[in-house]
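Troubleshooting log. The previous structure file for this entry was overwritten by mistake, so regenerating from the original sequence record. Sequence copied from the archived sheet and checked twice against the printout by T.R.
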Amino acid sequence: MKVLSLNCGSSSAKYMVYDWDKKEILCKGIVERVTIGESFIVHEVTGRDAVREEYECPTHKEAVELILRYLVDPKHGVLKDIKEITAVGHRVVHGGEKFAQSVIIDDEVIRTFEELSDLAPLHNPPNVLGIKAAKSLLPDVPHVAVMDTAFHQTMEPPQYMYAVPYEWYEKHKIRRYGFHGTSHLYVSKRAAVLMGKDPSEINVITLHVGNGVSACAVKKGISFDTSMGLTPLEGLIMGTRAGDHDAALDFYMMQKEGYSPKEMDSILNKKSGLLGITGRYTDRRDILAAMEKGDERARLAFEMECYRLKKYIGAYAAAMGGVDAIVWTAGVGEMSAEIRARAMEGLEFLGIKFDPELNRLACTRNSESDISAPDSKVKIFVIPTDEELVFVEDVVALVEGRYDVHTNFKYSFQDPEYRNKLRDAEFVKELQKKPEMIKARAKVPGRTPIKVQVNGQEFEI
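Regenerated output below.
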């Protein structure tokens, strides 16, 4: 069984092909700048160098067509025929209350996602466009929706309700939903593996820090609370989203500047966050570089983001009655030692103590890292997320009729012997340039290590 996973954003389309029978990633990639011009594809096949090609994709249909062409390309492809694809998994950001788990897509499901577009205006519309494009090109295979909100449906009313008129919930389902669910699910379960524990035995705070940012309090294996709310706007400071702020300031500025509701929504989602503070940057690398040159607004943005992260770590540790592990993930969480260090500075009183050298070395998307200090009471991990694998496993289980909620379902990546061969191969390449990175690699209890030769040195990974 070969499964294609698609994650269509507003201007991108990520993909992966997974051979379920061999438990191998055949390829992965991304089409960037979809709908905005100068679009291109980056295509990676296991064991080969990545290839890049410019190709105009004015809509997501052209992007999906380009992906399918690459999958069967004589030189760069991994399939002889597109009919080898057994099923397609799609990321959908907002599933509302109707969907507490992944679902096979039909016309009614698509209509529901379209109705929810107001709650996730940056994501649900392109998600739906990607689904429609893929279904038109691959009409004879099942298509499955895997929702960001599903993992958080275990939250209880004290955590998900807002202190607004209750009839708003009854009439309009106004409540906290949370997002990045597949990422929080994956890394929290991997943290349990790294600790040699069952997920139900530990409390984990997972920090998904990318352009979008969310924290999750995973108590005894289930989502107890999370920072994003009715929409992805609430919570931590993000690339362009404001996160937590006094709602009254929105009305104040609408009166002062004459903004319409639509304009204010755009400002809060697309012109705030780090971009709003710096006036220029959303990429943390740009912010760090500007700080070094004395840019005080860049420094302010950095300090604000790290402070907010620290506040959520403390709040969730208190809410769960203690924490056993902190997990950093997503692009910034995996790659920015500076943000991790600043956000965890001074948390020793909670038993959270990181090793500065290990933290510095743990900047890779290809290896799980343990950056805990030897005397830290709380384990601190950097775990590259793998939302696509969650998609694949849900798709296969649905197609085979054995799918269940995650607390009754064991994923393949919960096996101590699980390996991501593509990432292992890339990590070996990284060791050629920086062999000291091996110091931060997390050891998995019960896993048989693999010995590799790198520049005449032998490593166990």
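Residues 432 and 456 are 10 Å apart (CA to CA). Archived copy saved in two places this time.
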